[in-house]
Amino acid sequence: MAVTPTRERVNPDIVNTSPLRRPDLIKVRAPTGETYERLQTLMRSKALHTVCEEAMCPNMGECWGSGTATFLMLGDVCTRTCGFCDIKHGRPEALDWLEPERVAQAVKSMNLKHAVITSVNRDERKDGGAPIFAMVIRRIRELLPGCSVEVLIPDFKGSLEALRIVMDARPEILNHNVETVPRLFKQVQPQDHYEWSAAILSGAKKLDPEVLAKSGIMVGLGETLDEVKAVMRDQRNWGVDILTVGQYLQPSKKHLPIARYYTLDEFQEIRDYGREIGFQWVESGPLVRSSYHAAEQVRALSAVHRELYGENE
């Protein structure tokens, strides 16, 4: 019997009875405008989902207003119950093998220069839904040559076989978010393992040394700045090129509470430290999310990689 999808968290008793006052520097504008409305209509007409909407991204108005969006594949029901995420969880429907075609057609309709594709977790499948990622990468290349593709993938439970399916399609950016520090993994994302993230990110570089590897973490969940820097060092050791660091914002009172808000000076310290230890690009700020400025990242760093690996434009 199917389980009805729900947004209730794994720890529904977590209630922030004394919420912290949100700093003035964190201001989220409601998405509006002609471009936003056009994209919303396009998504609904093709029965597509975006992580922008499902995860209540604070940058949705800015990104959609500029004609970019992050597509959410493999359905809109996740098999995991992370305490920070507002995406529904439960038992998902069967994979929709026509979904890659609809996403690729939407990318073409938007005439994107850079497409970002992510997904829910599909732990009921041994391959984690990896073939869907490969299909959409290849179809975008067919329909819109010159459009670069970034995939933000699950950890696939550390499966290098699933990862290889995605990497064989040669995305420009392979992204997987670690999300938090090892000490908080079981509290923040109880079904995830730090070792799985390590396997996926280090494995991406082994399978394709030329791929731009990317990862991200949230701050404000109770970690220390020293722990953040330790995770950053791990990510560099795994071969990560691009790092995003943003403030955790509680989607509802049933989600994990905010332990504290980081200051702009602390975000600057994180950015400076990331550059010091060798990241090619660091986005660090209160409203930074994984896909923030993604197009700028791939354009700037692709030139560096062409020079490094001797590729022609």
Overall description:
The protein has 313 residues and is of the alpha/beta class. It has one domain: Aldolase class I (TIM Barrel, Alpha-Beta Barrel), CATH 3.20.20.70. Helices cover 37% and strands 14% of the residues. The protein has eleven helices and ten strands. The strands form two sheets. It has an eight-stranded mixed sheet, with helices on both faces. A two-stranded parallel sheet has the order 3-4. Helix 10 links the parallel strand 9 and strand 10 (281-285). The longest helix has 16 residues, at 294-309. The chain is globular. The model is unreliable at 1-17 (pLDDT under 50).
How would you spell out the order of helices and strands? HEHHEEEHEHEHEHHEHEHEH
Class derived from helix and strand content: alpha/beta
CATH class: Alpha Beta
**Named CATH architecture:** Alpha-Beta Barrel
Instruction: Give the mean pLDDT.
Output: 83
And the CATH topology?
Answer: TIM Barrel
Cα-to-Cα separation, first versus last residue: 53 Å
Q: Can you give the helix content as a percent range?
A: 25-40%
**How many domains make up the coordinates?**
1
Q: Report low-confidence residues grouped into runs of 5 or more.
A: 1-17
By oligomeric state, this entry counts as single chain
Percentage of β-strand residues: 5-15%
How many runs of DSSP E, i.e. beta strands?
Answer: 10
Write out the CATH superfamily name.
Aldolase class I
Number of H- or I-type helical stretches = 11
Largest sheet: 8 strands, mixed
Give, in spatial order, the strands making up the sheet with the most strands: 1-2-5-6-7-8-9-10
